[in-house]
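## Example pair
The file below holds two records. Each record gives the amino-acid sequence first, followed by its structure token line.
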Amino acid sequence: MPGATTAPTETPLTVRPAVHRKKAVEPSASSLDRVKTVAYADEGAEGDEVATGDKGQDSSPSFADQLERIALAPVEMHAVESRLESFSDLVAADVSQATEENVYTLDQLEQLALANNPAIVAAGATATKAAGLRNQVGTRPNPTLGYFGQQLADENTDQHGVFVEQEFVRGNKLELNREVLGHTMSAQRWEMQTQRYRVLTDVRVRFYEAVAAQQRADATRNFETVARRGVQVAMERKEAEEGNLIEVLQAQTLLSEIMLAAEQAEVEYRGAWQDLAAVAGLPEAAPARLVDVPATEKAPRDWQAAYDQILSESPELSAANALVCEKYALLKRQRVQMVPNLTGNFGAGYDNATDSGMINLEFSAPIPVWNQNSGNISAAYAEYTRALEDVKRIEQSIKSRLARTAQAFDSALAAVTKYETEIIPQTQKSLDLSEEAYRAGELEFLQVLVVRRSYFESAIRLIAAQGNLAQANAQVEGLLLTGGLDAPSDYTDGDGIRGASFGGQ
């Protein structure tokens, strides 16, 4: 299919969606004890045990350990600690245990949408209708078989017979009818192809929107765990007279903001999923996981070349050109309408008066004196002119849509590039330095929370920018065609021109 997207090779978004992440749970009593030991232990074996892990177990930190250790680094550490995991690792961390649930890839959703979308079925039905009409408008009129009787009241002079009457269509009207409907059928087939592009573009745009919402929800819920543990640290520091009430209130405020952001992210994901499910024709009401995210090429585009490619591949423009051909064929058809058809009548019977057979033969044709079809010819020319201008309108519409999409693409690309090359590395470095300064007692607890929130907000903005970039790219690859659930156009006008073929009028 022209203009089909190719699967890129790089995952565009920060959070890897291949595994379902469980919601954060309250820490167990054992984890709280271990955290308390890290925060307040004297030098010795107990503190070493916390830093290195339990004997006989895998020494690599678990996901829960990463969360706790990031959130609970103390102001003064007397025990030997290993380096804290960065917050970026937390955002992109994999979960060792995944729950079994429905998952969908983009390819699966595309196939389901093509199979379930009613607008595609309707467009196909209209194309079939056009094919049936094309066959109908080229058929010749049926002959007429009849009986005639004359002088029936005059005894022994009555005449009886049968006749066959046939209208002969002249001016090549029937072939021109087929030509007109042939272009109509072509336009309907292009309309069906256009509808397929609309559906695929809608699925891709909504898929990337849902993936971005899904990843924002994942990252926010992960950071909610960090913020929740931060509140606990602030309270423990206050109880140990190392902190104050302001730290506790600030930590609780941060937690409340993150909890609100998490709720909003999940609402956005549910809404994006339901929209995607509606376009794809899925019955599931509960959101499912979206995986196998194709990457978006992060390179500037040549928009003039993109415009030329869309013009050459657009089924929307091809349908408009087919309608131009249809209207021109209709103009030719109306110009021969004044050519009169010929009606022939052949009859044979028996004359009782002469006791012999008889044969009747007659031909007739209308004379185009008053009606020369000039009004229909003028109307057909106007329709042809309108079809030509409609092609220009679509070209300008494509240019306008491309300008908006190019604006969104370039803006998102600039944001993704800036965040990936400058902002995220800078906030990452700031986070690492703040954690080291905090462990050395050079930074307050609230200052570390501010830095972590700054990194979190930057990561969320990066996810949003990558989602916008992927959506804009999907629109370009989909030839700027959207509206998968809109009713397809019907260009058929019935078989009226077939009726006009008979009688020569």
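Second record, same layout:
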Amino acid sequence: MGRPVSRHGASVHTAVLRGAEAVPVDVEVDLAGGIPGINIIGMADKAVLEARSRVRCAFRASGFSLPRMSVTVNLAPADVRKAGTGLDLPIAAAILAAASQVPREGLDGYLLVGELGLTGEVSPVPGTIAFQKLAAEQGLVLAGAPGEAARAPIGAPPVPVPCLSRLKQGMGALAEAAAGAPVPDAVRPGPQEAVDFSDVVDQEAVKRACVVAAAGGHGMLMVGPPGTGKTMVARRMATVLPPLEGEELIEAAVIHSAAGLDASGILAGERPFRAPHHTVSCAGLVGGGRPVGPGEVSLAHCGVLFLDELPEFAGNVLQTLRQPLEDKRVVLVRADGTYRFPADFQLVAAANPCPCGHLGDRGRECTCSAAQVQRYQARVGGPLMDRIDIVCDVARPRPGSIIRGEEGMGSAEMRDQVLAAREFASWRRSQGVGDGPVSSLGLDEAASGRLDLLARTASLGGRAVTRIARVARTVADIEESRAVTARHVAEASLWRQREVA
């Protein structure tokens, strides 16, 4: 609850965004004699200070009167920087309560967030779902603009969430809700139209690679000439993953909401798909800016991050992926503190085999020299390639298959395989066969011998050996085999053929 105030003051609950997290703030208002005006204190940025003018105009348009007194607005705690326009509504509500123009008790159970227009209309601000999560944790009810009616299933508010479209009607709605009057329920969105792997023709080997990657959470790189369907495959990768639910849904929705993006698809259970252009900056990919916000790797949390034309990305940008791929989170250290964003995503990348794109292409001759091909393929860098478990070639589909409209595995069948493999892996771990060092993966004697021979023949490093073993473990999980056999190692080695050739 808010801090105690005098009879000439009032306090209202609100919050501000810090990264993707909502931080609680109390708006305290005190009315005193002196020169009339509004003074805002408590480390407020320019956007917050400009609320004084918006509040004055909104009061006049809504029929409220600004007290002819010195109005002091304190944003507590004072040592936290306040940014954004979401404090407009709570500042206005606190002033009205202090001036006895609205009942104070009608505001105690709410967390108010919203931007005021000059005509008194209330507009939404980024972070609605993060604010709702904070309100549920504090036993409050979020009240704000109706712009994001789709709310995540967070907590169980004591009354339905009221949407405030205008200041005058909004203050009245809060008073009525406090008295027990009903307010409209929020509307949950329906699922959006989804793509399906059945549209991908004559690429069954690539689909198999997608199943293995999705079942084990392995990074995947597709290499092939232009027009072979690499982007088409990547855009369907999220359809073979299980639907979002529970904590995963909340985390993904909070990040999208904090970034000011539409989270309706995520709230309907769809996993996010992010495909940044190869000109993206480091801050755009992993997060940053002012104020600090999530990057593409965090927006892809619990979903798919697709990097098309992988060698065209700047080298320093690609290397920033190393920490998120290992730690499943991004940690940014700035002068005002440390920001942490979740980044547990399925990496899918695509690349041409050479600058002209036709190396190994049937019916098209490559015009690149050996040196050009080597330089082009080296742009990705060894450290990042070491963290990509599956590399598969994508050939052009046969024209006859496209003309006849042939279909292979669809998303539903592939998703069933992924879910069954994950369920078996969970059972396997409970039986003591884990996912740690190679020795704990359950390789039988023949599989260990095959992996040892492979490593010595191809001069593989320790990381490459471990990656092949873990992919083989996933292949065994798909077949629901407790032991990893030589056949599973052989299939896993096919996805690292550029190293073992």
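Notes on the second record: Confidence is low (pLDDT under 50) at residues 156-160, 181-191. The CA atoms of residues 483 and 498 lie 26 Å apart.
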